[in-house]
Design goal:
- It is globular and about 55 Å long.
- 31% of the residues are buried.
- The strands form three sheets. A five-stranded parallel beta sheet has the order 2-1-3-4-5, with helices on both faces. The chain has a four-stranded antiparallel beta sheet with strand order 6-7-8-9, covered by helices on one side.
- It folds into two domains: 4-122, Rossmann fold, CATH 3.40.50.2300; 135-230, Winged helix-like DNA-binding domain superfamily/Winged helix DNA-binding domain (Arc Repressor Mutant, subunit A, Orthogonal Bundle).
- Strand 1, helix 1 (12-24) and strand 2 form a beta-alpha-beta unit.
- The chain has helices spanning 12-24, 35-44, 61-71, 85-93, 106-121, 161-171, 180-187, 196-210, and strands spanning 4-8, 28-32, 49-52, 76-80, 98-101, 135-138, 141-144, 149-152, 155-158, 178-179, 220-223, 227-230.
- It contains eight helices and twelve strands.
- The chain has 232 residues and is α/β, with parallel strands linked by helices.
- It is found in: Cytoplasm.
- Residues 4-117 form the Response regulatory domain.
- Keywords: DNA-binding, Phosphoprotein, Transcription, Transcription regulation, Two-component regulatory system.
- Residues 133-232 form the OmpR/PhoB-type domain.
């Protein structure tokens, strides 16, 4: 069955170009040209991925992203002409999985879409695994591979796809130190071009969910000058 993509882009020419290309790649594309239309579609339909422009009429892309993250962990890729480090950090900080600055090639967009959907659909494969493999526990932290949430002290926190995979990476490689470049290449499955803000924001958001005191983390430790590792 074709994967379903919600494309939210107010520029009709760009929207039609992206829609046409993705349909050629056998995706089922729904389009919205403003935030209100997108919000309605999101509530009515189920999607495998959302492509989101930030500069939208009626409801801004950032506000729409915050609404989406209140109820869903569907992969969200921001496509925007606002390409500053601050805009990227804000978008990722509100829960986007990736950020593509305009102008971009259709080849790059397709690769990012395929990678995001592939990572997301890996979740469903857990249903075929034995029950005992559906959770990873470390200290008082449990990563539930079935619900894709982290449970700390009996409290459950829903994770985004990237947060889930980052935490799983550390929990399954407990003594290893990972550089930011290694994390990016393993989780984003893409070449690293000094995208430190991307890693920093995702680590910060993950710590805010699983750490009692994010400024003094127990689970994801910073190894200064190198990267990160699981806390002892």
């Amino acid at each position: 069955m074709s994967k379903r993509i919600l494309l939210i882009e107010d520029d009709i020419d760009i929207s039609q170009l992206i829609e046409s290309h993705l349909k050629q790649e056998n995706y089922n594309v729904y389009t919205a040209y403003d935030g209100e239309e997108a919000e309605l579609l999101f509530r009515q339909e189920k999607f495998d991925l959302i492509l989101l422009d930030l500069m939208l009429p009626k409801i801004s892309g950032m506000d729409l992203l915050k609404q989406i993250r209140e109820t869903s962990v569907v992969p969200v890729l921001i496509i925007s002409a606002k390409g500053s480090d601050l805009d990227k950090a804000l978008g990722l900080g509100f829960g986007a999985d990736d950020y593509i600055s305009k102008p971009f090639s259709m080849i790059e967009l397709t690769a990012r879409v395929q990678a995001a959907i592939r990572r997301s659909t890996q979740y469903s494969e857990v249903d075929n695994k034995p029950e005992e493999t559906r959770a990873i526990t470390y200290k008082d932290l449990t990563l539930d591979l079935h619900t894709f949430s982290a449970i700390v002290g009996g409290k459950s926190m829903q994770l985004t796809a990237k947060e889930f995979h980052i935490l799983k990476l550390f929990l399954t490689n407990r003594s290893r130190v990972y550089t930011k470049e290694q994390i990016y290449q393993l989780i984003w499955e893409d070449d690293y071009y000094g995208n430190e803000n991307v890693i920093n924001v995702h680590i910060r958001r993950l710590r805010e969910k699983i750490e009692e005191d994010p400024s003094s983390p127990r689970y994801i430790k910073t190894i200064w000058g190198i990267g990160y590792k699981l806390g002892e």
